[in-house]
Amino acid sequence: MSELPSGWIGVRLGELGNWFGGGTPSKSNASFWAGDLPWVSPKDMKRAFIDDTQDKITLAAVQSSATSLIPARSVLIVTRSGILRHSLPVAVNTREVAISQDLKALVVAPFAEPEFVAWQLQSCAQSILASCAKSGTTVDSVDFDLLRAFTLSLPPLAEQRRIVAKLDALTARTARARADLDRIPALAARYKQAVLRMAFSGELTADWRTEQIALEPVSPRGELDIRVKYRLGGADADFAPPYSVPESWRWLRLPELGDMDRGKSRHRPRDDARLFGGPFPFVQTGEVRAADRYLTSYSKTYSEFGLEQSRLWPAGTVCITIAANIAETAILGIDACFPDSVVGFSADSNRCQPDYVEYFIRTAKADLEQFAPATAQKNINLEVLGSVRLPVAPLDEQAEIIRRIDRAFTEISRMTAEAAAARRLLDRLDQAVLAKAFRGELVPQDPTDEPASILLDRIRAERAAAPKAKRGRVAAR
């Protein structure tokens, strides 16, 4: 232990106090679970301090089971759980609790600080797991004998308290920063939706329009064939625009802007091996949802036999899901087939751009029925999509809208990525602070502090004199 700071000493966990196990009262006795005593299990061990739990038991439940009453300011540690594959949950309880059989409780001797022990266990978590963990068939566990033999570094009591106070202050700051950073993804999503709403109301390009001499409105494609194919009504009176748009814009249906049809997968059974394994990409609803605007990834391919019963859609097709994940969108970056749970839209280049349509569906998917006649069905199918109206800007303004959305989304994504990187740095900062604390470098050392070796002698004397605690009774400190 020559590497330890002056006045520090290595101490086995088994010497730091009294250990207690837990248990689970009978689930068949409902009265056991109608009390107000917190019963801690691994699911509750997500916080540094435990003050309440979802499950509560009665004193009678404690007395009837293998668990014990654990006094406040004990160190709780998960010793059996699948959680141990990734982390070592440690906490200090701020009130009296009972614990499950998956936890151990260390009632720390009077000459050590429970919070200091808990902080150091967190700092040593990976070492403890590496040296003490054992794998079971369904859960992982920590060998209790090995855990008790694990050595911690114990400074003088006064220094322990200074370290705890400093760690509390520093981690409170990083916790606030972490909470702020964790809100950024949700704020970014809201900001993107705000940009899209501005885009399709005309607000995003209001300044751009004032600089244009004339904007020629987009004219719809021929109506007769469209109405027959999609069973659309002829009157416009059944559609009330949900908001106003610039005079040069038009409320037009998707079929008035390009060709639209469902994907094809006619052969049954759908999982016939002859359909797959060829050169033709076959994308499904989950891959549309997972795409980051442009879809280029796929897990299955069609054979020539598969292609015969399907259709190969060209790159640039807007994919819109109508099953499983409703109204998820992506633009094909490759030629691909897809099933009838996906609608394909091929834009007429004289009327709209595919990016414009894809961005609009993103904006409207939460309440797509607002953009359809009142008589439209509320579920999404080809006919409903065919009746949906888009606020369509002239082509040159569409291009400007897409450019501005892209620019805004790029900036939002950049800020989100920076926030994620900062979040990772905070985790590393916490670990660095802990490492510094337990090297004796976080707070000044005071030569007048009583050395830890004297504390250890007292701890041993305390343990030798302490009576053995009985099951179902309060754990003595």
Helix-strand layout with pairing:
Elements: E1 9-12, E2 17-21, E3 37-40, E4 49-50, E5 56-57, H1 59-64, E6 69-70, E7 75-78, E8 90-93, E9 97-99, E10 103-108, H2 114-123, H3 125-132, E11 133-135, E12 140-142, H4 144-149, E13 151-154, H5 157-199, H6 206-210, H7 223-230, E14 250-253, E15 258-262, E16 276-282, H8 285-290, E17 294-295, E18 300-302, H9 304-308, E19 318-321, E20 329-332, E21 342-347, H10 354-364, H11 382-387, E22 389-392, H12 395-437, H13 452-465
Helix pairs in contact: 5-12
Structure explained in plain terms:
This protein has helices at residues 59-64, 114-123, 125-132, 144-149, 157-199, 206-210, 223-230, 285-290, 304-308, 354-364, 382-387, 395-437, 452-465, and strands spanning 9-12, 17-21, 37-40, 49-50, 56-57, 69-70, 75-78, 90-93, 97-99, 103-108, 133-135, 140-142, 151-154, 250-253, 258-262, 276-282, 294-295, 300-302, 318-321, 329-332, 342-347, 389-392. Helix 5 runs antiparallel to helix 12. It is 36% helix and 18% strand. By secondary structure, it is α+β, with helices and mostly antiparallel strands. The protein folds into two domains: 9-156 and 450-465, DNA methylase specificity domains (Adenine-n6-DNA-methyltransferase TaqI, Chain A, domain 2, Alpha-Beta Complex); 217-393, DNA methylase specificity domains (Adenine-n6-DNA-methyltransferase TaqI, Chain A, domain 2, Alpha-Beta Complex). The strands form seven sheets. Strands 2-10-7-8-4 form a five-stranded mixed beta sheet, with helices on one face.
